[in-house]
Amino acid sequence: MKLFFASDLHGSLPATEKTIAAFLQSGAETLVLLGDVLNHGPRNPVPEGYNPPAVAERLNEYADRIIAVRGNCDSEVDQMLLSFPMMSDFAWVLLESGQRLFLTHGHLYNQNKLPPLRENDVVAHGHTHIPVAEKIESQFIFNPGSVTFPRNEFAASYGILDGTELSVMSFNGDVIKQTQIA
């Protein structure tokens, strides 16, 4: 199983185009969007190429390959533009290993406020715009960083789950963070 993760597109068409290109090149079956898809939010500047309708149109081309959760900047109005559901605060994915992958944006659940988890489950979230791929106590925390507004001097990034390897990658191919989940 290979999954591609992106978070915090914030309506930027150039960032979305980069994300789609990297997703297609990765060979992943599924694009996991961890929230804040169309709206830039009141705390962020207007991003380069801000065009939520065009971002929605591009993502809709891959609707049958997307799993998405709602971010704190996403709304029902955003959902009206998208052909895939994205209003759930979280989603569960069962991995081939039997581990569970908990998908959320990060404003409700994160490494400081975990949902009920079993040992070696994975929490994947965005929201902080800071890449993470590590085991904390008995669970794995994974944050692909941000495509549009990276923080803490990290490059714009995305995530890959390839079998048992979680990686955060920059768009120039550098591994930013990486861990094994088995």
What can you see in these coordinates?
Helices cover 15% and strands 29% of the residues. With 182 residues, it is α/β, with parallel strands linked by helices. The protein has one domain (2-180): 4-Layer Sandwich (Purple Acid Phosphatase, chain A, domain 2). The strands form 2 sheets. Strands 3-2-1-9-10-11 form a 6-stranded mixed sheet, with helices on one face. Strands 4-5-6-8-7 form a 5-stranded mixed sheet, with no helix packed on it. Helix 1 (13-26) packs parallel to helix 2. The longest helix has 14 residues, at 13-26. The protein starts with a strand and ends with a strand.
What characteristics describe this protein?
Purple Acid Phosphatase, chain A, domain 2; 15% helix; alpha/beta; five-stranded mixed β-sheet; 182 residues
CATH architectural grouping: 4-Layer Sandwich
Q: How many domains in all?
A: 1
What is the SS-derived class?
alpha/beta
Q: Helix-strand pattern, N to C?
A: EHEHEHEEEEEEEE
Largest sheet properties: 6 strands, mixed
Strand content: 25-35%
What is the overall number of helices?
Answer: 3
Shape: globular
Tell me the CATH superfamily: Metallo-dependent phosphatases
Helix content: 10-25%
Low-confidence stretches: none
The largest sheet has its strands arranged as 3-2-1-9-10-11
* Cα radius of gyration in angstroms: 15 Å
End-to-end separation in angstroms reads 14 Å
Number of strands: 11
EC number: 3.1.4.-
GO molecular function, one term: hydrolase activity
InterPro entries: Calcineurin-like_PHP_lpxH (IPR024654), Metallo-depent_PP-like (IPR029052), MPP_YfcE (IPR041802), PdiEstase_YfcE_CS (IPR020935), Phosphodiesterase_MJ0936/Vps29 (IPR000979)
Protein name: Phosphoesterase
